[in-house]
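In the current project phase, our protein records have gained a structure token line. A sample record follows, to show the layout:
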Amino acid sequence: MSFASDVKNELARNEPEKPCCQLAEISGFFRVSGTAAFFGGGRFGIIATTSNPAIARHYKRLIKDYFGDSIDMEVQVQETELFGKDRRYRLTIDHEGAGEEILRETGLLMVRKGQNYLTDGIYEGLIKSKCCKKSYLRGMFLGAGTVTDPRKGYHLEIACETETLAKDLQKLINSFVDLSCGLSKRRGKYVIYMKNSSYVRDTLAIMGAHSYVLALDNTMIEKEIKEEAIRLTNCDSANMDRTLDAALEQIEAINSLKKSGEYETMSPKLKEIAELRLNNPDASLTQLGEMLDPPLKKSGVNNRIKRIFELARN
């Protein structure tokens, strides 16, 4: 099972306590997963589909708790050559006019100039409070959202059928403090997405996937530790390279003094550090200083090396 499916299974166990939050979540789910249908006698109905059985059970229970109506749930099995059986769960609402009532209350069906029409955005009356915004967002994610396993990358998105709905969702997400998302068009759909690890984490927390927030936190910490270890290793390698380059330049200067005969005219202290350098080409200045008797600090060793370079240049 994928990381996204695990997250949705946890979210499907969230039961909104307030009626307003129940309605907001139902509306968010229907907005991206439901379609209006016409049945006999001019009745409106709703058909919502999902491939996740936990989500199907969750909304069957939630709709019944809020509206008190019976729901027919069908299981459709589609076979494909690549993936075998693709099981789809369909929730159908058509019970003595309940479909039209639910469409109106969830903001999917409105009246203009005496005529019914289907809306394509988010009805503001459903998301007046912060708790309802969270529930609406959870419903849309359960219906058309996905999130990448944080071990592979940070990416959360929700696909929308219309640009109006996508912009309304973007506005809803951006209304939360320190949260932002992007919008792009892909394969005929408008996708709200976020790639920032903090945004993904906070969005999961807002929707109620708390155990996976902890899992994401652990992954982020592990990645930071690995990146810091790599950075330190690279830094150590770079420092080692610089030390070796400097040592080679110092050895070259010492050898040039020996060839010119100037080496014998150097003071005993300079000869001492020069011999240590020739015998320890991998040692740092600090290590060379520790080899002296008495020991000398790095700055003192550096001063002697500078005097050797001056003599070599002269």
Notes: The radius of gyration is 35 Å. The beta strands are 34-39, 43-50, 72-80, 84-93, 109-112, 115-118, 145-147, 156-160, 182-186, 189-194.
